[in-house]
Write a structure and sequence with these properties.
The complex is a heterodimer of chains A (about 90) and B (about 290). Chain A is of the alpha+beta class and about 90 residues long. Chain A contains three helices and three strands. Chain A has a three-stranded antiparallel β-sheet. In chain A, a hairpin with a 2-residue loop joins strand 1 and strand 2. In chain A, helix 1 packs across helix 2. Chain B is an alpha+beta fold and about 290 residues long. Chain B has two domains: about 120 residues, no CATH class; about 150 residues, Phosphoenolpyruvate Carboxykinase, domain 3 (Alpha-Beta Complex), CATH 3.90.228. The chains are: A alpha+beta (about 90), B alpha+beta (about 290). At the A-B interface, strand 1 and strand 2 of A face helix 4 and helix 5 of B.
Chain lengths: ~90, ~290
């Protein structure tokens, strides 16, 4: 999976928010607030460029003390939300 | 060659022309903004009636608003903007690589073409200067300004006119395109401009902003304060800019983020009646 071109993570009044800033996303007209875990995953996804559930679970478990099963459930849920909203493909 | 110097919200720009002085002299709304010639200018716009070579034009974004449209794109890598009024192209603006020099070729409805070219260049050149060209109707009351935002047709001007009619001491600052700056100390100030839509209100005045109020139509009058991300989301759609350009987006975001934190932002659901103005006044004026 990849982040669609033009979506970036911004700090808005102390919160992490995804905004669309490109020709492709100019009519997106939404702001998506992320919690701390989701924002961390977004940054990892940006770093990895081409990412999967597994690659992000790997990163999450490698950095934080979290059970693989729990991490897999969280990553799967967050990615499916992003896919539904249309910020990743 | 003749050059005219103007200052809007503290930023100076030059409008110059070879042989089209009469057109520039027709632009009466700029007169309150005239300043002495200086070298310290933000940008220069040259007005010409020579046609622009648009071969290789690549369209990026088209924005429509109430019969007026802007088509933005590039020609040989340089930013280029077409301004249309209905089905007639009014003018074409070409901007040089560093973004500080523009040429506008006017075709039809010349003042519309020049105004739009100036507004676009102004927005491009001030985006990284904590300055925002707003789409808003603004009134002043007891030394502060109240800005009304909303989609086209929501009733921004109508709401201003309700304040003017029912609330004594209210004056119109600008009816369409004021400029807002966030000062170093976090003070938010709104300035009148030569751009005011259909209402001829071209006042060279400034006021600290008392409140920014996003309007939407409803069968009742109700106002709530917005904070944080909601305040940010309320102001962003009313600020003009080339958001699809990374450098521009960075500057706009900085200004918008500051506005969301430094200005008092509200959402007013309203009818076009006296009570709407009273409900708004009671909430926003200290």
């Amino acid at each position: 999976m990849k982040i669609k071109k033009g979506f970036v993570l911004r700090d808005v009044c102390g919160e992490k928010v995804i905004v669309g800033e490109s020709v492709e996303t100019i009519n997106f007209n939404h702001l998506i607030s992320l919690n701390a875990t989701a924002a961390w995953l977004w940054c990892k996804a940006e770093e990895q460029v081409d990412f999967t559930v597994d690659s992000l679970v790997e990163a999450l478990c490698g950095t934080y003390d979290v059970e693989r099963e729990r991490a897999t459930a969280d990553v799967t849920r967050i990615l499916s939300q992003w896919k539904e909203i249309g910020v990743i493909e | 060659m003749k050059a005219f110097y103007y200052q809007v919200a503290g930023h100076i720009f030059v409008l110059q022309t070879y042989g089209m002085e009469d057109v520039v002299c027709e632009l009466k709304q700029y007169e309150p903004f005239v300043v002495e010639p200086t070298d310290d200018v933000l940008f220069r716009l040259t007005v010409t009636d020579e046609p622009m070579d648009l071969s290789g034009f690549q369209e990026e974004v088209k924005q429509d608003d109430d019969g007026q449209s802007i088509v933005a794109g590039t020609v040989a890598g340089k930013p280029c903007f077409e301004f249309w009024l209905g089905k007639r192209r009014s003018s074409v603006l070409m901007v040089d690589a560093d973004g500080k020099e523009g040429v506008v070729s006017v075709e039809n409805n010349r003042s519309f073409g020049i105004n739009n070219a100036l507004m676009v260049l102004y927005a491009l050149c001030t985006a990284d200067k904590r300055t925002a060209l707003f789409h808003s109707s603004v009134v002043s009351y007891k030394g502060k300004a109240y800005m009304f935002l909303g989609k086209s047709g929501t009733g921004k001007s109508t709401h201003s006119s309700l304040w003017l009619k029912h609330i004594e001491g209210t004056e119109l600052v600008n009816d369409d395109n004021p400029v807002v700056r966030v000062e170093d100390d976090g003070t938010v100030v709104v300035y009148g401009s030569p751009w005011s839509g259909k209402t001829p209100c071209y006042r060279n005045v400034s006021y600290p902003v008392g409140a920014i109020v996003r309007l939407s139509q409803a069968p009742y009058n109700k106002i709530v304060r917005l904070k944080g991300v909601k305040a940010y989301a309320a102001v962003v759609p009313s600020i003009s800019g080339k958001r699809w350009d990374a450098h521009q987006a960075e500057g706009l975001h900085e200004t918008e983020n500051l506005l969301a934190q430094c200005a008092k932002v509200y959402h007013l659901e309203c009818l076009p009646d006296e009570d709407a103005a009273r409900v708004c006044l009671a909430a926003v004026v200290e």
